[in-house]
Design goal:
With about 200 residues, the protein is mostly helical. It has 4 helices and no strands. The radius of gyration is 54 Å and the shape is elongated.
């Protein structure tokens, strides 16, 4: 196979330009086709005494090519964007946790106020129960009174008194009694109560 018949020629070095946004160092070897590298390894040095780069480590240099438009700068922007999104998500979660904790603190403060009111009511009840007057009334309910007292109880067979009967609870002690004239009584009987 002659040098004139092979494509690309053996002595011609092919250079691929680096993208404009990424500088290419000058000390990198030029890119070569795989068939050129294999042919150079098989034939050895060129006839003119110049080295053709038979070193297999000098293979094809793709450092200057951007793969599917991916450059270091774009990778950096993508990484910075991902880090920013991650920080925003973490921050949003922290804000949500802080809001939930604040709501819980408000709820606990309301619960504490309700419990304090309940404790105060129970303390008032305890203060009432330990008074001697209450103890003596509760003792009489169980048949324990002073020695000269005669315990009694109403029979459960007795019917409850009707309203207005003497001794009934229809009129409370000290309640104001509404006195009506006979005319007002007849009018309320015929037309219903006026108030």
């Amino acid at each position: 196979m002659s040098a004139a018949g092979s494509y690309p020629p053996r002595n011609v070095k092919i250079r691929i330009a680096a993208p404009a946004d990424e500088p290419r160092p000058l000390d990198r070897p030029a890119a070569r086709e795989p068939s050129e590298v294999a042919a150079a390894l098989a034939t050895g040095p060129a006839d003119d005494g110049s080295a053709t780069g038979a070193d297999p480590a000098d293979g094809i240099d793709l450092a200057g090519l951007s793969i599917a438009g991916i450059t270091r700068r774009r990778v950096g922007w993508v990484a910075a964007g991902l880090v920013s999104v991650w920080i925003l998500v973490v921050f949003a979660r922290q804000v949500g946790d802080a809001t939930a904790a604040a709501n819980r603190a408000v709820q606990l403060a309301a619960d504490n106020a309700a419990l304090a009111a309940e404790v105060q009511a129970l303390q008032g009840e305890v203060d009432l129960i330990v008074r001697p007057e209450y103890v003596s009334i509760a003792a009489r309910a169980h048949g324990l009174g002073a020695p000269h007292e005669i315990p009694f109880a109403l029979s459960p067979a007795v019917a409850a008194p009707v309203d207005g009967a003497p001794g009934s609870a229809s009129l409370r002690l000290g309640a104001e009694v509404d006195h009506q004239t006979p005319l007002e009584s007849w009018l309320s009987l015929l037309f219903g109560p006026g108030r």
